[in-house]
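Q: I'm writing up a methods section and want to include an example of the input and output format. Could you take the sequence below and give the corresponding predicted structure tokens, formatted cleanly so I can copy it straight into the document?
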Amino acid sequence: MRIGFIGLGRMGVGMAANLVASGQEVTVYNRSPGKAHGLVEKGARAVAQIAEACRGDAVLSMLSDDAAVEAVVFGEGGVLASLREGAIHVSLSTISVALSQRLAAAHATAGQAYVAAPVLGRPEAAAAAKLFIVAAGPPHAVETCSPLFEAIGQRTFHFGAQAHVANLIKLSGNFLIGSAIEALGEAMALVGKAEPTPVPGAPYLNAVQGTRLRDLRPTDRGPEVRARRVRCTAGIEGYPSRARGCGDPGHTHATWKPAARSLDGANCRRR
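A: Here is the clean output for your methods example:
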């Protein structure tokens, strides 16, 4: 396929390199052109304008946030104005559901296809083509892009024809990770501030990773979660004696706060 790739940050540069390695004809654009030099050496073509990256069968964008995506897509000479009718825009970015819906509507009006395909994984996974991809959009467009997903990731999860659903899934995944980190931090604070015998972090983590965290594996707890029998409250079902008192505001060993409140919008959208 003749594709464009917009956004050569820590995630994008590895993804673009894997697309080149898979034999795709890749044109790359980045606001800071110096980041394209390594890709050009591998066979990509670098361009100075967004429009020049939108002349193929599809253009993929991997950008930092809603504002960056809006500027690249809706700005003068942007993706929406430059992509030919029938071509595909694949947004790999972690963006809001509202913006994804707006993109789908705008591309449909222009006779273009829009696929949301946010990714799960860090830059190391992007470089190694080990990302997990959450894809949604018009079935024919998603199918057309399957070779591209195979080039950058180890598995693609399909979530139907409504593109914004993929973004909702990705945001929920970010929230889940953030909540787990928050919960682990609170648990470590509980044991680390205990008097008169605080527990050091390293031994505690070794013990928890070897025992209790195993109970959280989806294969073990999936049926209970689906049946809504697991409650994330101070009194965890099945362990009332161990949890008693932890939710008491006067308890001196830890400070408890709802994980959802601790995550602002920026953190939930961070890729």
